[in-house]
Amino acid sequence: MNKIEQLQTYLREQSIDAAFITNPDNVFYVSSFKSNPHERLLGVMVFQEAAPFLICPQMEIPDAKNAGWAGEIVGHADTQNAMEILHQTALSRGTEIKSLAIEKSHMTVDRYDALISLFGAIQFVQLDDKVNAMRVVKDEAELEILREAAALADYAIEVGCKSIKEGITEIEVMTEIELALKKRGVTHMSFDTTVLSGSKAASPHGKTGDRKIQKGDLVLFDLGVVHKGYCSDITRTVAFGEPNEEQKAVYDVVMRAEQAAVDAVKPGVTAAALDQTARLVIENEGYGEFFTHRLGHGLGISVHEFPSLHGSNELKLEAGMVFTIEPGVYVPGKVGVRIEDDVAVTADGVEVLTKFPKTLQIL
Amino acid sequence: MNKIEQLQTYLREQSIDAAFITNPDNVFYVSSFKSNPHERLLGVMVFQEAAPFLICPQMEIPDAKNAGWAGEIVGHADTQNAMEILHQTALSRGTEIKSLAIEKSHMTVDRYDALISLFGAIQFVQLDDKVNAMRVVKDEAELEILREAAALADYAIEVGCKSIKEGITEIEVMTEIELALKKRGVTHMSFDTTVLSGSKAASPHGKTGDRKIQKGDLVLFDLGVVHKGYCSDITRTVAFGEPNEEQKAVYDVVMRAEQAAVDAVKPGVTAAALDQTARLVIENEGYGEFFTHRLGHGLGISVHEFPSLHGSNELKLEAGMVFTIEPGVYVPGKVGVRIEDDVAVTADGVEVLTKFPKTLQIL
Predict the structure, then answer these.
(1) Does B112 touch chain A (CB under 8 A)?
(2) What is the per-residue pLDDT across B30-84, written as a single tens digit (0 to 9) for each?
(3) Which residues pair with A335 in a beta bridge?
(4) Among candidates B217, B174, B168, B218, which has minimal Cα distance to B195?
(5) From CA B160, how far away is CA B162, in angstroms rounded?
(6) How far away is chain B from the Cα of A31, in angstroms, using its nearest Cα?
(7) Is A325 exposed, middle or buried (0-12, 13-18, 19+ CB in 10 A)?
């Protein structure tokens, strides 16, 4: 059953007349058309029975067709009222719309007001949970793309390691990485590439800067690529020169925590239990207070999506879920280590998508 | 009068109890704190008399202070309900909030519903127009940053021209440009850098790709940088090798159209008249049907902001407005030329911020 059919089934089951999807990531998910329309209207309207349609800026119609959307495409010019065109096209389907499912976390109030003014007394239903539930389990085609995206992230870490030398700045290392990826056809990173060295790695939200890398530093890479519309996200921490005892100790505990969580992944385990598995390893070594964030996050069309791997999420893992596992220990002003893999839940365990070695690399 | 005071005056004049600003560009404008909070709550709440406050994720509090926000900062952790914290902090100001100005083009329906549920019967006022009107006129500090951003865009075009040689691909030229900018401290482009060659330049929405640049091509660069939170945006079209007669003819008409519009900029002229000035030059040479977009757009914290320079915008230009002037002629499959400058309206005319030569550069 394709995504549109799944939505139609949902509408029939819930007795909702139509759904209007406007979050660009969700539009891509159901239509294969990826676009950032900025302030312009982009959306897919789905009905219980009638044919769905895609509405987009006029000039993007050829791109939408090329992307593989075979249904009707309704264009709007900048001089037209896009919401009125939406309303008229919806009416043309012959179904009276008294209830409409929308992504309340994405729809803006001005468009919401316009829907009310155009469609009249209408009941709005929150669609976010349904689409998130669909997206959280990846099919085989999606998994294959995520594997490719992860391989590109592995390659990026390899390039980063090779570029490190005495006195090179974090920004220069970042530039080497992105340059190498561009040569492999990567046009967008999934977020700002992070290279943090020395005590800067001890801040979980530090920014890549002008600091010169020196012997004795740990260097933390956190990066990912966008590949065929899907994201990867990897973190590795490596040593430039022989690490000291504290660096080795922190690295060791983070690596064991990460591996323990990876090993615990299988259907039926809760997100909270997985978070706890890694956290216990770190707490048992006395570093608990320095693991200040959740274990990980879902990964797919968005670099942060469902599920969220945190201590109070009782969601049970299912085969096909893809997420990061990324424990870290940050001893302020001293040493910071994070190790992050992208993993997929399989029928009976786990597939680790990122393959770069996790034993401490000494450069 | 600083931006917060301007908003306070507006609230008093309009008898609105408070304003809640959540668009990250507007938050930056009023607070100096630039952040992309993704799904997390970020906002500034302003009252008629009481002290404003900024609400942001807990871990961003140090960044907000460093950015220069001297007022109260209220943090929220991922485990907390940020909207409830907002409500409690607002209540602590001692003012009953019966009317609240919000950016309806940015506020999402789920937050809107939360505001209604927390604040009760409340009247919402559209704040977008007010903030846009404030942002549309730049002060001297903003103009100075925009001059610096434009100089970096000039430099990028220079690098692009120097990198062109037989057989280099568009993506390789783009990479050379971005690498050079990174070395000058530019961490973000204001949009995807565009390099289009040959007949690809004849599509106003073409994408930088693997095409190899050849003698006889026109090459179109469209790019800009983010500098101190503000954007530049420049387009130049250059010839690789001796241009043919049609290329020269199209270039000449676009250059004259662009210059005519630049020369016509002064306070009191309407956006529509400016668009018409350039369009007439192009129409008089018989290329009118190939100038398929508006003349330009406002430029500042956002790369596309107010004012919009199109044929039906009767807005009168004022000193301090900054926008692009970017006529283009695209003869499908054959030749495409666009020339774009960033300009500021002065008390009696125009200041052109981008300085790269506009006579046809033959490389």
Answers:
(1) yes
(2) 999 999 888 899 999 999 999 999 999 998 898 999 999 999 999 998 778 999 9
(3) A331
(4) B174
(5) 5
(6) 21
(7) buried
